[in-house]
Amino acid sequence: MKKKLIIGTRSSPLALWQAEFTKNELSRHFPELDIELKLVKTTGDVLLDSPLSKIGDMGLFTKDIEKHLIAREIDLAVHSLKDVPTSTPEGLIITSFTEREDTRDVIISKNGVKLQDLPKNSKIATSSLRRMSQLLSMRPDLEIRDIRGNLNTRFKKFDEGEFDAMMLAYAGVYRLKFS
Description:
The chain has 7 helices and 7 strands, in the order E-H-E-H-H-H-E-E-E-H-E-H-E-H. It is an alpha/beta fold. The longest helix has 17 residues, at 13-29.
């Protein structure tokens, strides 16, 4: 009988991609394990109406999963490192990382229009304060919109014309094959 290993993860498509990738890598190296995923809804998944910068993002996407670790309901958690606070709860440690994906950001616009060629006062959506600052540094005329939700939600809002472009992490766009 195989030893069971339970991985805790969020249920967003990108989190599931990362957890499945981790599961597959572990299975490749440890075929004697029976690995399953446990989906956990986090505070960050529920609070979608406010910008992360307003509600504070300390553990919004990790704390609920870590509670399952502490309670021994899961054996390990898979997080995106950007969501992990700088200090971990007592009794938990970060033991490993997968290989880092491309760290660049990407501008998504209608017809592939470049950032410098967008019309004056264009509306650009992003959820990152760093990206907001970079955009305004390059183009002070832009109207920056905060956007929350998974990539499917963001692309739906873009397709519906809520804004002219969005700035996203390339890694997520690539992993979920939006490119």
